Amino acid sequence: MEAAARGAPARRDQRAANELIAKSGYWSAARIDDGLILDEYRIVGDNAETYYVTRTLRSYNPVLDQWELISTDRDTGLRNAGTGHLESGEMHIDQKFGVGTPNPSTWRIRYYDIKPDRFSWTGDRSTDGGKTWTKAYQQIEAHRIGPARSLAALTSPKAIAK
Q: The whole model's pTM is what?
């Protein structure tokens, strides 16, 4: 799915997590041939300048009956891990951001009103390990602007020529 996302408030970047702005962005995703999902979320300014970008790899674990995900961050690498569960047609994700930084946060994210051409997203945020929460800290309305995408395998099982 390639979607235009409009959300408010949104973080300018991890170093300025307390500085909030209302911006739009793009959220693109591709299903990889074995069911993994790779997505990219990019917050952009009025002149298409990138304020923040993250990429997430999502994989379903049938043993635990949950989605497992890991997101990238320019400053901390692969530390933003989470899990997701489908509940009554909504995807609920618990994820930590900013792990290893002075300002880590925990998010409870809910994807809802999921349709082939759009979805809604809201994230509650805690900065004290889950003791208190800021409800609807970030909200996104995403609408499809491009075709569904998939990626073929990066390698091929073809026989090696001798």
A: 0.79
